[in-house]
Amino acid sequence: MPAARRFPPPWIVEEHNNACFIVMDATGQGARRFRQSHRKGMSMMLQTFLRIVTTLALLCTAVIFVSEDVRAQVINFSQIDAFESMGTGTLHGASQPKTIIDDSEQHTVFITIWESDADTKVYWKSPDGNLPRTTIIHGTGAQAFQTAGEFRLEALGDANHSVNYGYVLLRHKKQ
User: Fold this and answer.
1) Whose CA is closest to 37, among 62, 60, 20?
2) Range(s) of the domain holding residue 136
3) DSSP conformation class of 7
């Protein structure tokens, strides 16, 4: 005959005073307590998950609204060290370029233009040779860049024109 289980199922999880969770077995005996500090770790995991979902949503938005003119550099994903940041914004024509990166590090940037009545000028430095480059994105679209320390965006045209964008910034490993 099998031995009786020490904590027989079914198990019940109850929250107490919004401070901890108690796992109890079928007899009502408390088997394990989880304090509120565990929620902080869960919250961090949730934030990371939400960042990933938001990143994918930005990139998927690009797939839905992309123009036929999608281009990208060859990206060496083995060089990516860590997620650095992401953001969204609006550029207005006749304004100064918006600086996304201004350091001496190498990065990969995924940029999505999801609404635009102007062309977007991208200023960036080539990682091979550190040469200044510019790229024009016409209308909506998505593009990926590997850059060496500089990445700026500018809406071309007068102040009545604007560009809505989102980006994901990934830092490269130190060489």
Assistant:
1) 20
2) 67-172
3) S
